[in-house]
Design a protein that fits this description.
The chain is of the alpha/beta class. It is built from 13 helices and 22 strands. The strands form five sheets. Strands 1, 2, 3, 8, 9, 10, 11, 21 and 22 form a nine-stranded mixed β-sheet that branches. Strands 5-7-14-13 form a four-stranded antiparallel β-sheet, with no helix packed on it. Helix 9 packs across helix 10. It is globular, with a radius of gyration of 23 Å. The two termini are 22 Å apart.
Length: 551
């Protein structure tokens, strides 16, 4: 059954065995897993089939200390959640992310990696990401050239056997409609959850209070509740569930020790350097390749765990990236086409393309010179488009991105681990949104220590690329990392961190909220450490594990 909650009579109520809040990758996974076991499931999605003004308003936040992308640009309140704009990049976390690292306090998980690793295969199937194989050597990538003194995995310093793999990308809205259409779940759209009410004695949640319109309430009673509304929105719901008649200004569920919303982490990202790939570097296959089962993949570059430990560094993944398109002095028609396209989307504030690392293109200068570059070599643009546009736009699996590596100049793009800090947090503000709910206030910054770790890691990676003869490397601009904006909030981790004790986090090792035994969280918000890869595969694996814990 699919129902618009705005059509429900005010004050009406519905019952289920499990209430899942959110229909993105985590919520859709939990709903499908539980429906397969015959449980009666209601899914509450705050948005509708597409973008709408009210939904976007409820996702706007209030800027606090530091800098962060506008909250409405880094998430999607709609059926299928942010999967509607997801790029599809998948990779598992690393063993080092789960270990006790004295140089990175508060990053230990209360579960071993093996506990999550056993769910990666199921997560791969939910994400259509092919085999659960993340070794380049085992995935048909080129062998290491004979003139490079290294094995298939890399050197003692630099590792290059790990992969990113890409989902088609999978959007979860069609799956949710199919589940609802066959009667396996009841799916409510425009069903923003204002709060969870709970029993004052046991602490167990009793019902989700839904606000389809300002002043209208609908209630959903259930035995178990799963918060899968994304890191920021799941945090808002717990903070607003204060037991004070929905004022939104109390302590919140799971917040006895002021832990809800703290330790907010994302992935600092950026591009630096000037690289020239040698013949050996090109032969190693540092661009996109297709695995035997037809999945797009590419190598990650990272420092060996022993080097991270010796140098006291956080985790970081890098890849060879195309040259900086913004400066028209490159005289490259293809790069100018890219710069003009992203400059236009940024000026138009076209969703994700105006946020995060994409926001840099709004500062593109020399527009007329870019236009002349394009006009001077249209054949290059046409050649690239012929080989790129079809798989990007019409293939069953979309080519993940623009990635010409045929230029004499390239860069290193990085995704870095962020150290958890209690000062990075979200709280409820007194300002209200279109539905009368408190907006989120965000206080967030990337620390000087994390910035120095990124710069050191990139320098070591660059030196090893040059030592092995894979590239000529100029990282004279690496100091830019020290003051780069790094405001991307698309990966929302740490806000509801997993811990052994409520003094240290919000959920236990089974992802149940401390003090509320029937409230589960399926979100990357539970990650105690961020790792250096996109969280989607791990959060879907965690969602499978959470579903297994519900009977």
């Amino acid at each position: 059954m699919l129902m618009d909650a705005r059509r429900a009579l005010p004050g009406s109520s519905f019952d289920a065995e499990v209430c899942v809040i959110g229909s993105g990758p985590a919520g859709a996974t939990v709903a499908a897993e539980l429906a397969d076991r015959g449980l009666r499931v209601i899914v509450l999605e705050g948005g509708g089939a597409g973008r709408d003004r009210t939904a976007e308003d409820t996702y706007r936040g209030v800027a606090g200390e530091g800098a962060h992308d506008p909250l409405e640009t880094v998430r999607q309140k709609r059926l299928g959640g942010t999967s509607a704009v997801w790029g599809g990049r998948c990779a598992p976390l690393d063993d080092v992310d789960f270990t006790e690292r004295e140089w990175l306090p508060d990053t230990r998980w209360p579960i071993p990696h093996d506990e999550l690793r056993r769910y990666y295969g199921r997560a791969q199937r939910h994400l259509d990401a092919g085999d659960c194989e993340y070794s380049a050597a085992a995935s048909g990538f080129p062998e290491v050239p004979s003139d490079v003194a290294a094995d298939a995995a890399g050197t003692e310093v630099l590792r290059w056997d790990d992969l990113w793999r890409w989902s088609p990308p999978t959007a979860f809205a069609p799956r949710m409609r199919a589940l609802a259409g066959t009667g396996r779940i009841r799916l409510f759209t425009h069903a923003t959850v204002a709060r969870l009410d709970r029993d004052p004695v046991s602490g167990a949640a009793t019902e989700a209070v839904v606000v389809p319109r300002r002043g209208q309430e609908v209630r959903v009673r259930a035995r178990e509740f799963v918060l899968a509304a994304g890191g920021l929105e799941s945090t808002r719901i717990l903070l607003a569930s204060d037991g004070y008649g929905g004022s939104g200004l109390g302590a919140g569920i799971g917040n006895a020790y002021d832990q809800v919303g703290r330790h907010y982490m994302t992935h600092p990202v950026g591009e630096v350097g000037r690289l020239g790939l040698t013949a050996a570097g090109r032969a190693l296959g540092l661009g996109y390749a297709v695995t035997p089962e037809g999945v797009y993949a590419r190598r990650m570059l990272s420092l060996a765990p022993s080097v991270q430990a010796e140098q006291g560094l956080g985790n970081l993944k890098a890849a060879v990236w195309f040259a900086d398109p913004k400066d028209p002095s490159h005289h490259d028609a293809l790069l100018s086409t890219f710069a003009l396209t992203y400059w236009g989307m940024g000026r138009a504030r076209a969703g994700f393309k105006s946020a995060g690392t994409h926001a840099q293109y709004t500062s593109t200068t020399g527009i007329s010179r870019h236009v002349r570059n394009v006009a001077g070599d249209p054949a290059r643009v046409v050649r690239f488009a012929r080989g790129w546009a079809r798989p990007r736009l019409t293939g069953a699996r979309h080519l993940p991105s623009f990635m010409p590596l045929d230029s004499s100049r390239c860069r290193l793009r990085f995704d870095a681990e962020q150290t958890p800090s209690a000062a990075n947090r979200v709280t409820l503000d007194r300002e209200r949104d279109a539905l009368g709910q408190c907006r989120l206030r965000v206080d967030y910054a990337v620390s000087p220590g994390d910035r120095q770790s990124i710069a050191t890691s990139l320098t070591l990676i660059g030196k090893e690329l040059e030592r092995t003869g894979l590239a000529t490397v100029d990282l004279s601009d690496v100091e830019r990392v020290g003051d780069a904006p790094m405001t991307d909030g698309t990966h929302q981790m740490g806000l509801l961190r997993m811990s052994d004790s409520p003094r240290e986090g919000v959920v236990d090792a089974q992802c149940r909220v401390h003090g509320s035994p029937n409230v589960h969280v399926a979100s990357s918000a539970v990650f105690p450490s961020s790792g250096a890869v996109g969280p989607t595969l791990a959060l879907v694996a965690m969602a499978c594990r959470t579903a297994d814990g519900i009977s």
